[in-house]
Amino acid sequence: MPAMNSEVLGFSADWPAPPWVKTLSTTRAGGVSQGAWASLNLGTRCGDAPAHVAENRRRVCAALGATPRWLHQVHGTTVAAAGTDEAEADAFVTRDVGVVPVVLTADCMPLLFCHQKLRVVAAAHAGWRGMAAGVIEATVRAMAVDPAGILVWLGPAIGPDAFEVGSDVHEAFLAVDPEAAQAFRPGAPGKWWADLYRLARLRLAHAGVTQVYGERFCTMQEPLRFFSHRRDRGVTGRMGNFIWMVRDS
After folding, report:
1. 52 occurs within a structural domain
2. What's the pTM value of the predicted model, to 2 decimals?
3. What percent of the chain has pLDDT over 70?
4. Structurally, how many domains does the chain consist of?
């Protein structure tokens, strides 16, 4: 696969993955979309011109040297392992070289998974609904390896100082894990500030995964770098978070 121009399309995960594991997280830069979707919007269901999205995806595919497995994300827990493009799922796992799992985000958390010795990778999309329902645990199970050997990178998501939620979100997490209380702090009456990164770490720890990296981001507070569904009142683009394996490393 050809080398990517990371300065144009995005950046790689900062984690001690094996050399055969490659990643890319895109930013807003490097595409052709205009207005609220400027410029590298990869989402087909957010109101952008289809021709612009197609060109943006073409650019990413050319840089990757492969066609990603785009998903139809529904904030659920289904993990795809094969099949056609646009499978209705929120995670994808593969053991095949050249197959590129991808999840699209604009405040929700992208998680990239690999094993430190075995050839298996995965990507998961975890908004609060999917995370509370168990998409992280479902992805770990689908990898079918010892979780102690799994590495996870937590990509760009809304940060703990920007994610104010209602009591419904607070209650949804505490109903399945009382320890989740440590990831919330009180806000206005009936409101809570939620830390998605801490919630993800808790879920991963319960699943036996402790090698966790990333989480130095806030999509809402970096408007020049990231799309944010909440900041932009629902009219915005989507970033892509890709992971794949190569043979010659």
Report:
1. yes
2. 0.96
3. 96
4. 1
pLDDT digits 0-9 by tens, 5-62: 544 689 999 999 999 999 999 999 999 999 999 999 999 999 999 999 999 999 999 9
Angle at 54 between CA 82 and CA 242, to 5 degrees: 45
Residue 135 half-sphere exposure toward CB, CA atoms < 13 A: 33
| CATH code, domain with 64 | 3.60.140.10
Q: Is residue 183 part of a domain?
A: no
* Phi and psi torsions of 206, nearest 5°: -65, -25
| Residue 4 pLDDT | 43
Helices 196-206 and 135-143 cross at an angle (nearest 10°) of 40
Structural contact between residues 146 and 207, judged by C-beta atoms closer than 8 angstroms: no
131 in a structural domain:
yes
User: What residue numbers bound the domain in which 117 lies?
Assistant: 13-158+214-245
Closest by CA position to 80, among listed 92, 90, 72: 92
